Amino acid sequence: MTQEPPTTTEGPLLEVTDLQKYFPVKSSGVIRRTIGQVQAVDGVTFSIGAGQSLGLVGESGCGKTTTGRVITRLYDPTAGSMKFEGHEIGHLSKKEMHPYRRDIQLIFQDPYSSLNPRHTVGSIVGTPLLVHNAVPKNQVVDRVQGLLETVGLNPEHFNRYPSEFSGGQRQRIGIARALALNPKLIVADEPVSALDVSIQAQVINLLQDLQQKFGIAFLFIAHDLAIVRHFCPEVAVMYLGKIVEIGDRSSIYETPHHPYTQALLSAAPDVKQAVVGGRRERIRLEGDVPSPVNPPSGCRFRTRCWKAQAICAEQEPPLLEVGGRQVACHFAEPLQVVSSLVAESESEAPSLQDLSESGDAPVQVS
Amino acid sequence: MTTEAGQTAQTVQALSPRRVTWLRRRDAAVRSWKSFARHRIGVAGLVVLVLFALMAVFAPLLANSNGLEVTKATGPVMGAPSSHYWLGTDESGRSVLTLLIWGSRVSLFVGLFATLISVVIGTLIGISSGHFGGRIGGLLFRLTEWFLVIPFLPLALVLASLLGASLVNIAFVIGITSWPGTALLIRSQTLSIEARPYMERARVLGAGNWHQMTRHVLPNVMPMVFANTTLTVAGAILAETTLSFLGLGDPTRVSWGTMLDSAFSNGAMSLGAWWYLIPPGVCVVLVVLSFTVVGQALEEIFNPRLRQR
Predict the structure, then answer these.
(1) Residue A331 has pLDDT above 70, yes or no
(2) Contact predicate A217/A186, CB 8 Å
(3) What is the tens place of the pLDDT at every residue in B36-57?
(4) Chain B residue with minimal CA distance to A74?
(5) Are B201 and A177 a contacting pair at CB < 8 A?
(6) Closest chain B residue to the Cα of A187, Cα to Cα
(7) Which of A139, A216, B119, B237 is the most buried (most CB within 10 A)?
């Protein structure tokens, strides 16, 4: 058996402080000098309690996936601290990290390329057990079949190859694989965005059941606002490598304080509004996302923000407690027009029916 | 476990994983064979290869090995083909046909053995240099490139004369000079597999390098290795012929290369003894060509990018 990481009960399960991940940009040629840094993640702070789930939303390229990969130590963090159950895991060696890998698992976006086409389902789901010597070899098949049953697959199919399954079933295989070692934290990187809408709801429900049953904490990375709202009691909004707003789901969704969050939410289709027949007031952002190699000074959103003043270029707004959530904006305030439209939905999560109806439209900020 | 789950486990046990894997492998083999059978030229090459292989295996039945010994030779010197000596005789009166049949053994053995060495080295270095990024991978890649640019013949000549002329040495020399091509091919394939999410998944899991290379990379590059092997055999046989022709072959064994060498040095050309020169030459060409077309057919089956043509 591999050694168990020491456990502590106090404090959050995962505590990320000022996490940074820069990717060097190298010049071509024989001597490859570093000529710049892609600041993919630049000072991200959040924590996840045991059995809790945090949603991480933002548009493509904002660093949410990189954050997930640093937490699973696919990338080494450039700076900052990552504490798992109170133990710093950001700079552990491969060997020291090994026992923690049991507890932190990853679910991938693409259910096709994340399963080796030459391995059977049994071997895919059983590999974690073997790598970590979690169960005796002769019990692996039993455990794998149990896991397949847990995720709603026929346990007899453990001899089949991934190509014989549909996208949703493949994602279930990926989930079974992530569950194999009874992890405490699952980083789900866009787990349903590659699936059909009807299947999305099923998989989300499965994840929710599993979370309640096994008390697993989730870092749920997605760009689909409706799904995040359904799944995560706490939501963090990222823009260009930074968290701009973080708080519980009702305050973020009903009274967004950061201009970017307001724009993001206004771009998401709202079924209820469409039924009533009213056109939503939509905030159209000008321009493109600035390059993360050379982000704007001060507030990173100021180049596209309609509220931007001189102070935004000079001072970087810190994450401050405003109206029950933390916002990084000098002019944080609820947007009256948007909030009046969104606030009519009830404070708890939307029903699943809503989800499957509205879930197909990914959020795009133009 | 509940009784229900126990029952499902039992029905599954009826088909053991090993058996299922075997069935699937068989299905895959049948599928590959079917697409291979559509390549007419490839099939023709395979037929020729099978004939040569039979000839090599059953050489003792086809021709008496006494016919290889100069002292026991009975025929005329450089005799033209006749009813007794179908392909004429050599400078010491041995039957060229006998030499040809026994020569196929040496040529094929050296070709296959050299290929084995070359493919093992090439695959090992190719996968390692693709899998380990950074310094180790770069170093292995440079090593591959270094071997690639060394002209084959001078290196082979030096090695062959240093190690001494024996069959195993010849195969060894050919093997360690011909692996870079395989290594480059396998390296590029490995790099493309390394980028797949299931490799990331294996790393997140904390699976070691050995696990990643043997369980994920190797099964995915194996078809390419297989197709490449047949192409390498052709080159190895040609290399053996070349080295033997240059006088670096095993002097105690007859191969097609040494036949060409002695035909050349004994003036078969000026004597007009075409029967001594042409048969070994044709055999080399036939075998090399067959291996090449079979290899190309296999490559087309296993490399999806070449399939749609």
Answers:
(1) yes
(2) yes
(3) 888 889 999 999 999 999 999 9
(4) B204
(5) yes
(6) B204
(7) B237
**Minimal CA–CA distance to A68: which of A278, A218, A237?**
A218
Determine the residue of chain B that is closest to A147 in CA distance: B5
The whole-number pLDDT of residue A207 equals 93
Kindly report the nearest CA distance between residue B206 and chain A, in angstroms. Answer: 6
CA distance A172 to A281: 38
**CB–CB of B5 and A72 under 8 A?**
no
Residue A97 has pLDDT above 60, yes or no: yes
Q: What is the pLDDT of residue A361?
A: 45
Residues B166, B250: Cα–Cα separation, whole Å: 5
Distance CA A314, CA B35 (A): 67
CA distance B146 to chain A (A): 17
For the packed helices B152-163 and B167-194, what is the interaxial angle rounded to 10 degrees?
A: 130
Residues A178 and A102: their CA atoms lie apart, in Å, by: 9
Task: Report whether A163 contacts A117 (CB < 8 A).
Answer: yes
Give per-residue pLDDT as tens, B189-218: 999 998 888 998 898 888 888 989 988 899
Q: A364 versus A181: which is more confidently predicted?
A: A181
Q: Model confidence at B119, in pLDDT bands (50, 70, 90)?
A: very high
CA–CA gap between residue A118 and residue B245 (Å, rounded) = 45
Q: Mean per-residue pLDDT for A71-76?
A: 90
Which residues are CB-neighbours of B243 under 8 A, at least 6 positions away? B156, B157, B160, B170, B173, B174, B249, B257
B192 to chain A: nearest residue by CA? A113
B309–chain A nearest CA distance, Å: 24
Phi, psi (5° rounding) for residue B74?
-115, -15
CATH topology of domain B31-58+86-308: MetI-like fold (1.10.3720)
Q: Give me the pLDDT at residue B13, please.
A: 47
- Identify the DSSP state of A195: S
Report the pLDDT averaged over residues A241-266.
Answer: 90
Mean pLDDT of chain B: 84
- The number of C-alpha atoms within 13 Å of A340 and in the hemisphere containing its C-beta is 6
C-alpha A286 chain-centroid distance:
26
Of the residues B7, B21, B198, B224, the best mutation for testing chain A's interface (the one with the most A CB atoms within 10 Å of its CB) is B198
Chain A to chain B Cβ contacts (< 8 Å): 80
Residue A267 · residue A283 · CB < 8 Å: yes
Burial of A92 (0-12, 13-18, 19+ CB in 10 A): middle
Question: Cβ B211–A131 below 8 Å, yes or no?
Answer: yes
Nearest CA in chain B to A117: B220
CB pair distance less than 8 Å for A105 and B200: no
Q: Is A66 exposed, middle or buried (0-12, 13-18, 19+ CB in 10 A)?
A: buried
Token duo for residue B275: 């029967």
The DSSP output letter for B132 is: S
- Give the pLDDT confidence score for residue B206 in this predicted structure: 84
Scanning B200-219 for CB atoms below 8 A from A yields 200-207, 211, 215-216, 219
Q: Do A98 and B206 touch (CB under 8 A)?
A: yes
Q: Pick from A72, A116, A155: which is nearest to B216 by CB? A: A116
A159 closest CB neighbour out of B20, B201, B220: B20
A87 touches chain B (CB under 8 A): no
Q: What is the pLDDT of residue A77?
A: 92
Q: In whole angstroms, give the CA distance from residue A300 to residue A43.
A: 12
Q: How far apart are CA B139 and CA B146, in angstroms?
A: 10
Tokens read off for A256: 């967004």
Measured between beta carbons, the chain B residues lying within 8 angstroms of A146 are 1, 5
The pTM of this model reads 0.75
